[in-house]
Amino acid sequence: MQNCRCGRGAYYFRLRLWLTEALTPCDCVRSIGGHAWLSPYFFDMDTSVHFSAQTCVWPTPDSLFDALEKEFGFTLDVCSLPENAKCSQFFTPDDDGLLQNWHGVVWCNPPYGNRIGDWVEKAYRESHNCVTTVMLLPVRTDTRWFHNWVIGKAEIRFLKGRLKFGDATNSAPFPSMLIVYHRR
Fold this sequence. Notes:
Elements: E1 2-3, E2 11-16, E3 29-32, E4 35-38, H1 40-43, H2 62-72, E5 76-77, E6 105-108, H3 116-127, E7 132-138, H4 144-149, E8 155-158, E9 176-181
Parallel strand pairs: 5-6, 6-7
Antiparallel strand pairs: 1-2, 2-4, 3-4, 7-9, 8-9
């Protein structure tokens, strides 16, 4: 153990991480010699929302979408509700975007539930049909879908900080990333 350098006087516990280059030192995490050290106050945090299904619908922040729209020029939103569609052409849950043919430049902020992997796989497969897809996803580098359909197959952009979705007053309880499947 080591004394905390963030001024809280806590001790750090050793935790092996495989992607230490992705760590950013902060008050509760430090990367030391290929390992991360977590202070004990981290374990007292209420993390129940991180592992719950309180909601799987997280409306895209307008400021993020507007910046991406300038870069990509989206033509189709494949995962939306009529009240939060980001493109003039869109698929609703009744349309089931997983069953539709995608076209053009696609925006996809899928429900963050247990079918998220299906959306990621669909985006990968559609890239082979000359479709470019940009997805807003929670960072879940430990999942099968991330290893099967993202690593080595898509451009990954980790977003700094935590996003505020929709009309939320607080930031999301998880980090976010953009996955870009360029048409092939």
